[in-house]
Amino acid sequence: MRPKPCPLLARNLTSPAAPAGYTLIETMVVLSIVGTLALYAVGSFRSTGGRIALDTATDNLVSTLALARVAAVRKQQRVSVCPGDMVNGCSGSSQWQLGWITFVDVDRNRRLGAGESVLAAVGSLPDQLTINFRTPNTLSFNPDGSAWPNGHFKLCSPAVTRRQAVIVHLTGRARVSDRSPQGRTIDCG
User: Fold this and answer.
1) Closest CA to 101 of 74, 76, 68, 142
2) Which residues constitute the domain of residue 70?
3) CATH of the domain at 30
4) Is residue 89 part of a domain?
5) pTM score > 0.85 for this model?
6) Distance between CA 46 and CA 83 in Å, rounded?
7) Dist. CA 71–CA 37, nearest whole Å
8) Which residues, at least 6 apart from 140, have a Cβ–Cβ distance to it below 8 Å?
9) What is the DSSP secondary structure assignment for residue 179, as one 8-state letter?
10) In terms of DSSP bridges, do strands 151-156 and 130-132 run parallel, antiparallel, or are they unpaired?
11) What is the pLDDT of residues 43-63, one digit of tens each?
């Protein structure tokens, strides 16, 4: 009886060598597809970055308001939130996107004074974001958890078409919405 040849060796001996690599045309087709997909991805990443920045700013603001309300109830003192920083106190401006502070407002004047403790500070947000609130530019929480004044923060970014509002009720409750308290589209103009 004759031994059978190994199929792997037999195939290698009988078949011609397969070409190695890709042709120039195949490579150009793949590169053009990858380039087209990359163009779509860049636009998508910009819009995703804008959405993430808007969501992060909204979360920071809602967390700050919740902290201020809880601190007011626990300490049985007025706690205020205003645009500004720990060094200069409340700025008096309407540009919340430059940062804000939360402090125990012992003298109830809605300004950070000597002897008043800062509970939290949020730094400047990315350039494209704007946050606006009504006048006066300070929101205060009373020992019973109520807020004064009520109103809504408008959070806007030109990088995305979506806008958000943080609506603060007189009871001190804050909620996020894509509409103004009156049910209208948020005007960022």
Assistant:
1) 68
2) 22-75+125-177
3) 3.55.40
4) no
5) no
6) 28
7) 50
8) 78, 79, 80, 81, 105, 108, 110, 147, 148
9) B
10) antiparallel
11) 665 667 778 889 999 999 999
63 in a structural domain: yes
Strands 79-85 and 164-168: unpaired
Q: What is the pLDDT of residues 132-151, one digit of tens each?
A: 998 889 999 999 999 999 99
Q: CA-CA distance, 28 to 91, in Å (whole number)?
A: 58
Within a domain: 109: no
Sign of CA dihedral 129, 185, 84, 69: negative
End-to-end CA distance of the chain: 94
CA angle 184, 186, 189 (to 5 degrees): 130
Q: Per the domain annotation, does 147 fall within a domain?
A: yes
